[in-house]
Amino acid sequence: MQQDKLWNQWHPVCKADEVTDEPKQVRVLGEPVVLFRNERGVHAFKDLCIHRGASLSLGKVVDGRLVCAYHAWEYDGTGACVKIPALPCERPIPKKAKAVVYHCQTYLGLIWVCLGDAPEALVDFPEYGLDDHRTVICGPYDVKANAPRIIENFLDVSHLMFVHEGMLGDADHAEVVDYDVNFVDGRFITSKIPVYQPDADGRGQGGYTDYVYEILSPTVARFTKTTEGLDEALTIFTAVNQLDDEQCQVFMLLTRNYELDQPDEPYREFQDTIFYQDLDIVESQKPELLPLDLQAEMHLKSDALTIAYRRWLDELGIENGTIQKQSTRT
Ligand code: FES
Ligand code: CO
Fold it and tell me: What residues does the Rieske domain cover (predicted)?
């Protein structure tokens, strides 16, 4: 049950332009997955040939079909095996000769895979792709931690003044005002949380910026920063792919409605710096699995959002925040 919940979620596995007609292996919840592109789009199969278990990602794409490197069985985009060279031509291809096909979509410049039969809806990102907004993809960042720990760090307001002091916060302005957390349209959203930022976006301007956080799925969250009196908005979107029990990959999208003609690189560099400031902390956290029993750690009112997140994971049946592989399932 717990695993089904994440099994039915969409997980970001790579940038869309990384998938070509060269098969590519990725991992989701411990499952090896092969991606390839043909004229009909991107396809995701279990990275295992049903004949003798070779990795399909060692093969190649010929005429839009994925051809296994071992005995050259050919799979079309639906996963059906359409050619078995060793089979005399008068014999039909066994009906069971089919790759295990996963749901796969291109969205927000990323490839998303769902291993389950009944995918949840993809998360919303209304600003993405608007003419007056510009998005930079950052990462993927490798992290030796569980996805809920990573998402919780992203949702944590009161670390900004210390872990990111001088960039996203200031130790002399560490108080967090009370804020609301509401569940609206299938996601959690906070009221505006003012945070003093000595250098809010790398342009050397200090002052209060309002953060509005949203939790979009157990492994996807975002916040939007705005400043009163200014039309500028910066949204940072974080999507975590739990590769296996110990490792994750984190994709971050920065969407801004200002400096549209400026290069993206400084934004990416800024985000890299911020991310690596968090990395040691998140990888150090014990226990590795986010404790969902609220008695297990201490909480302040300023932790209202992360408390809501823990309660929600608990309600969803994601026991202890773990995301375990379900290797028996095909
Ligand atoms: Fe793939 Fe034999 S193992 S064709
Ligand atoms: Co941080």
Answer: 10-113
